[in-house]
Design goal:
With 86 residues, the protein is of the alpha+beta class. It has 3 helices and 6 strands.
Length: 86
């Protein structure tokens, strides 16, 4: 979430060892958007459909490509080569 001194982490979506997507909300008030996406899905604009965490790769990719979020952003902090690409 955008804060006066930069960005503040309010939630984490993680690919777990079993291949599922986990969600940890770190700030109950401001992390509600992450809980909403985890429960209701994310708009996968390229395919014009909603994608839920039961499609881990598509869901996590859709989170990273959400337009029109001025106060929130999703960042890939994984250790994969794709995550460090510009």
């Amino acid at each position: 979430m955008r804060a006066p001194r930069g960005w503040t982490r309010v939630a984490e979506s993680l690919l777990l060892a079993d291949g599922s997507v986990g969600l940890t909300v770190l700030d109950a008030e401001h992390g509600e958007i992450a809980r909403h996406f985890h429960t209701n899905g994310v708009d996968l604009h390229a395919e014009r459909r909603m994608v839920r965490p039961d499609e881990p790769a598509a869901y996590l990719g859709a989170l990273l490509n959400q337009p029109n979020l001025s106060y929130y952003r999703f960042t890939d902090e994984s250790d994969t080569p794709e995550a460090s690409a510009p």
